[in-house]
Amino acid sequence: MALTDGTYRLGPSTARLLIRTGRAGLGRRAGHDLTIEAVRWSGEAVLVIGDPDSSSVSVTVETGSLKVREGTGGLKALTDADRAEIERTLAKRALLYTAEHPTITFRSTRVAGTPQSFEITGDLTIKGRSHPVTVHGKGSGDGLLRGWATVTQSTWGIKPYAAFLGALRLADEVRMEFEVARLEPADGPG
Question: Are 110 and 122 in contact (CB under 8 A)?
Answer without folding.
Answer: yes
